[in-house]
TrEMBL record:
It comes from Alicyclobacillus cellulosilyticus. This is D-3-phosphoglycerate dehydrogenase. Pathway: Amino-acid biosynthesis; L-serine biosynthesis; L-serine from 3-phospho-D-glycerate: step 1/3. NCBIfam families: PGDH. It catalyses: (R)-2-hydroxyglutarate + NAD(+) = 2-oxoglutarate + NADH + H(+); (2R)-3-phosphoglycerate + NAD(+) = 3-phosphooxypyruvate + NADH + H(+).
Length: 527
């Protein structure tokens, strides 16, 4: 198993990966895209920070990649859509560098408020200039924190400790949470208009790109100070340069840039009141150890097939959720696989009903397992839990989840209904205490069978001799019957039969059974 590491990641984290049986760790930093495409070809896992650009071409070049681990928060250097299409899980380590980034934000804020780098440089030039570097105090000033997530919240707490009035803007910040933190909740417009300091802590998304643009600068107070230790691109650098040139912005402290490394002749670097660092927010010993340990543990979990917490391109299951839902993950996949074998032609839509107590859980992951079973029957190993919803969408399959918490008969119920060119099929299963997962209904007939192994499924006229004749055909073909289940709605009507057999019933035997008088439907199911 090859684990490729292409950025500087603490050896304390990598040790966990090295300890994986059969793992070979390959550390190669500073690769060009073609070099990375070559190196990733036979890798099972890739670990990066923000420097490696994991493009669509890189992901497409990978033949056996299962997981990309980001030792840090931001995943804008990874083509998530391409990873999802390819079925590669992307995990990150969102908690380990929060404090480092929050402290760096404050270091930058104070450095720019008190001209520390400029004063330091002046002394080194042989001067003792005490007039040019008169700064401003933080106490009593208003700071707008745009993005009140992990880092924004820590920055807000530190700002309060400095006696600042803190305005928070974040679509997910509730009034209650703001009150709890001592933050005044504001709209973006209000926050930027009232603030003496503005610091951004959002991810870079379509909505946040150039959140601070010309328009925004125009609404700000004269002499406002700007900090960006989140992502380059949240601030429009051209607009910032204009605002610095006009004096609207008194100072800016930037750790991140639209282009990294920032070109040496970038106009921002010509302003003496701009303080810059080369994306150092997460660069503390503690943070680097934290993120490396966290991401390596996540990657190990993915590679071992254990529940992971911080997937960026699929829902994660906590250990507790996994304990409750695990049997349903298996049941869902088996029911999906079973129903796929009942259907002829392309499936237009799928309805998944979650009944009883199951309806009270977040079942997004169970739906993925159903899709994996259903689509995997036709598409094979290409389908996994990451790309199953994408592949469903691509194939025009509409998926509907319904919940019925008040199921009268079963404590828990998982039912699938598919509609295809040849009509409709339905299958339902449950988890019987002590008996594990069971199929309890097929196409409206009650049955009771474990969803596993090789099964011969028939629908036939309910009359004497049918079961015996089918048994004879199987006996002639030397196929042993291990178990049998029959079901019917009324005597003499239609009946169903599920025979557990020791090997898959071959096509020629199926053809013989299909020709029997009274046989309406026959399928060899392989679970
Ligand atoms: N400079 C560095 O080295 C460094 C280190 C760590 C993190 N970061 C960056 O800092 C940023 C914040 O990280 P975090 O761990 O706090 O992330 P987080 O996910 O905990 O917080 C981000 C917050 O932004 C909010 N948000 C999203 N869109 C928004 C919008 N349009 N307007 C306002 N708020 C919006 C979210 O609701 C969330 O609360 C990320 O961009 C991350 O990549 C940089
Ligand atoms: O998003 C992050 O975690 C930070 O930007 C840190 O990036 P780095 O790991 O490249 O320092």
């Amino acid at each position: 198993m090859k684990i490729l590491v292409t950025d500087d990641i603490s050896p304390l984290g990598l040790a966990q990966l090295e300890a994986l049986p059969g793992a070979s760790l390959v550390v190669r930093t500073g690769l060009s895209e073609p070099e990375l495409m070559e190196e990733i070809r036979d890798a099972d896992a890739l670990l990066v920070r923000s420097q490696t650009q994991v493009t669509e071409r890189v992901i497409e070049a990978a033949q056996r990649l299962r997981v990309i681990g980001r030792a840090g928060v931001g995943v804008d250097n990874i083509d998530l859509a391409a990873a999802t299409r390819k079925g590669v899980v992307v995990v990150n380590a969102p908690d380990g560098n929060t404090i480092a980034a929050a402290e760096h934000t404050f270091a930058m804020l104070i450095a720019s408020a008190r001209y520390i780098p400029q004063a330091d440089a002046s002394i080194r030039r042989g001067k003792w200039d005490r007039k040019s570097f008169v700064g401003v105090e933080l106490r009593g000033k208003t700071i707008a924190v745009l993005g009140m997530g992990r880092i924004g919240t820590e920055v807000a707490k530190r700002a309060m400790a400095f006696g600042m009035r803190v305005l928070g803007y974040d679509p997910f910040l509730t009034e209650e949470r703001a009150r709890e933190l001592g933050v005044i909740r504001k709209s973006l417009e209000e926050a930027i208009a009232e603030a003496d300091f503005i610091t951004v802590h959002t991810p870079l998304t379509k909505e946040t790109r150039h959140m601070l643009n010309r328009d925004a600068f125009a609404r700000m107070k004269e002499g406002v100070r700007i900090v960006n230790c989140a992502r380059g691109g949240i601030i429009d650098e051209e607009a910032l340069c204009e605002a610095l040139a006009s004096g609207k912005v008194a100072a800016a402290a930037l750790d991140v840039f639209e282009q990294e490394p920032i070109p040496a002749d970038h106009p921002l670097l010509s302003f003496p009141n701009v303080v810059v660092t080369p994306h150092l927010g997460a660069s503390t010993h503690e943070a680097q150890v934290n993120v490396a340990i966290d991401v390596a543990a996540e990657v190990v979990r993915v590679l071992r097939g254990e529940p992971f917490r911080n997937a960026v391109n699929m829902p994660s299951l906590t250990k507790e959720q996994k304990e409750v839902l695990e049997p349903y993950l298996l049941l869902g996949e088996q029911l999906g696989l079973f129903i796929a074998q009942l259907v002829d032609g392309s499936i237009a839509d799928l309805e998944i009903t979650y009944g009883g107590q199951l309806a009270n859980y977040d079942v997004a992951f169970v739906t993925r397992t159903v899709l994996k079973g259903l689509l995997g029957y036709r598409h094979g190993d290409e389908v996994n839990y990451v790309n199953a919803p994408y592949l469903a969408e691509q194939s025009g399959l509409s998926v509907r989840e319904t919940k019925q918490p008040r199921s009268k008969v079963y404590t828990n119920l998982l039912a699938l209904r598919v509609r295809s060119e040849d009509g409709e099929h339905r299958i339902a299963g449950t988890l019987f205490n002590g008996f594990g997962p069971r199929i309890i209904e097929i196409d409206g007939y009650s049955v009771d069978a474990p969803p596993q192994g090789k099964i011969l499924f028939t629908r036939h006229v309910d009359k004497p001799g049918m079961i015996g004749k089918i048994g004879t055909w199987l006996g002639n073909a030397d196929i042993n019957i291990a178990g049998m289940q029959v079901g019917r709605k009324e005597t003499g009507g239609e009946a169903v039969m599920l025979l557990s057999v020791d090997r898959k019933v071959p096509e020629d035997v199926l053809a013989q059974i299909r020709q029997m008088e009274g046989i309406r439907f026959v399928r060899a199911i392989d679970l």
